[in-house]
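Need ATP-GRASP peptide maturase of grasp-with-spasm system's 3D structure for a figure. Predict it.
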Amino acid sequence: MILILSDCTDVSTDYAIEWFRYCRLPFIRLNDIDLINTVVSVEFKEGKQNIIFNLKEQIVSLDEITAVWFRRGILGFQSNFKNMSAHSQELTDQVVELINLENKTLTDFVIAKLAQKQVLNNQNSYNINKLQTLAFAQELGINIPVTAIETNRKAVDAALKRPGEQIITKPIQDIFWLNYNGRTEAQYTARLSDYEDRPENFYYSLFQECIDKKYELRIFFINNDFYCAAIFSESTDGRHDSFKEKLPRIIPYQISDKLKTQLAGLAKRCEINCGSIDMIIDKSGKHYFLEINPVGQYGMLSKHCNYNLHEKIAHYFTHEKEII
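Structure prediction for ATP-GRASP peptide maturase of grasp-with-spasm system:
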């Protein structure tokens, strides 16, 4: 049985499951809401360990799980002590801290045992440190934009400011969504067109040189097989900017064997075997790595380039190269 950890809004999981059914692959899908209510029993006896999962009114043992697809969902164990009240708030806080530590130990053990199965990715790799991936890419000889994290304009100027060149800023890690007064706002990648009007000092912020791009690359990989598309758009950053006004042109693209080897090395260092990679090609044809995302969407790439990536995921679990 294949255990799929996802969330209820992930369409890519829906499409992949259609292929699971076609291939007659037994599976159970747990979405984020299901995972909150997951109950387990852990047993050490007769010379081995076993974990019993109470999943959606179905009892499944660790031995029955042959593979795990860590797509998006977070497996964890919630305490039922939210309304707990000890003799004092200080004591209550300490008991809650204790319960959280116990839950972490249990969760880490369960994830480690699941990771011994045939897996696509790992829950511990969902939020890869983006600064670390830039460092890995640089060490592997992959070009990256000149990048600086600074707290004042003078330092940014010294690191990045060049005559006629622009600077962009974006989150150090992931986009953060703010909800207030019935509205939702989010961070995004932006050019610093009015840079001189910014405060002299600020909190740690990431700045990069703005690459004069020819087109973008979106690369999906699974077990060192790479499926690439070139995206032609006029926006600053196709990963975050809106395509509502004019859809980009997307065509299949072949990357070099050298770049494949470098990207395979990057995935290995990040301890993932499936995900999406974003790159940019500048006007001179030079490649620049931007980021790697183990839980990124790949439906657009699959559809426009006819890669049938949801089928490829089913192939991974069937150990077969072709189904039809």
